Model the fold of this input.
Amino acid sequence: MAELSPVGAWRPGDEPPLFSARELAFAVERVREPMRVILDPDTGQPGVGFGGAVEPAPASGSLPLLGVLPALYPEWLGDRAFCETHRLRFPYAAGSMANGIATPRLVTEVARAGGLAFFGAAGLEPARVEAGLDEVERDLGRGAPGWGSNLIHSPNEPELEAAVAELYLRRGVRTVEASAFMDLTPPLVRYSLSGLTLDGDGQVRRHNRLFAKVSRPEVARRFMEPPPADLLRALVTSGELTAEEARLGATLPVAEDLTVEADSAGHTDNQPLPALLPVVLALRDRIASSRGYPTPTRVGAAGGLGSPGGVAAAFALGAAYVMTGTVNQACVESGLSDAGREMLAGVGLGDVMMAPAADMFELGVEVQVLKRGSMFGPRAAKLFDLYRAHASLEDLPPAERQRLERDFFRAPLDRAWGDVEGYWRRRDPSQLERAGRDPKHRLALLFRAYLGQSSRWAVEGATDRRADFQIWCGPAMAAFNAWTAGSFLEEPGARTVAQVARNLLEGAAVLTRAHQLRTFGVPVPSSAAVFRPRPLA
Done:
């Protein structure tokens, strides 16, 4: 086995060198202090030291020095440019959770803790989105860093997507997370490129900052490239972009920050992060090199990040920042009901499943949801099977109609359709016009009503509908529960987004330090790789 050669000597100060397993376990947690990696000349065992003096050559009373590890702060784990650009303390983001589950309060607490958080605007009507923006701005102050809002792709309601993008432009929301997009749309590109200017050095300056959440390399490419020329021309023709904005936008990636979403809650392709992230990073480098971008797209990581080990691994893979989701849904600031958070507290690795998505039901798109304690997943799958097999509501077999009325809608289907009609008459009458022409679309609208309401039942804590709760959940929740077991964060009422963020980042720094020491051959005990949650200021 190759041996490390000393690079100098170290003379202890007030604190003696540390070699025992117990001493090393405590030493690993002292990440904010420079650490000397030393060698016991009698046993040949590496150890560590703090303080003292580094000397160029061995002398009486000194020990061989193998290397020096600088102080390591959680703030330094990711890309420094990410924090500088967005005026953050930590390379940490809390992703948007739809239907307002990522509440204004949650957003505010993460921002005050030094991270970035996105309001869960998906699934809300523009008036409710605006009310959420009002609350965040009232708490943080207009123009404060650390927050943004969500823009979700709405293939069945393009007018809603455009209205929310217009709202962000009108309100001056400077940071937006784009999720569930499979391709670029005019409202998305318009938001990204609006306000582009040249500074005194001839560099393009962005007015708005777009975070794209993707889970496929081919979708990532669309956000890392400039928008297609025909889309830019159409936006200029419609007056939604100026000719200068389009000209400058043709030289930039659509998104300056891109979150690679691995096996996560909600919309996901269930890809493992160690396989997906390196592929997207390599793609980013090729595109940036070929196009000569002055600022390549920063790439962050999301999905499965429910423990310090997962966060440390994401940074080790090259993530500029990490983004959490499910674990924040379990926190007291989330919009999920107390009953829903209690259900999340019992999640294990086998307690999640894929189920049809309400917003892209007809396309067969799925989301990852909680299976333990809820019948939503199997019932949603049953609705999709019925949709594929039948052309209309009238085509359903009597037994299936009876089952739907008893277990799903708890009302005759004619009455359930009447409620659906009332909803779409207020929200988008064109959907009813289409349903009048297309019985299959009418069937889809009825089934989507169950899927959409199931999430709201979980948010509201509807006790009579607990078996139908749709709670978006990924394996990160199981990792989080295993990590927090026996700690103060085990209790659902003690889980705050700030404490979760601080502990994940602190733990990731400790695990990173442990790995650094292992590369020097220091016999770091396994206990050093288990950072226990603790109240952190």
Observations:
- The longest strand covers residues 63-69.
- The chain has 20 helices and 18 strands.
- The two ends are 43 Å apart (CA to CA).
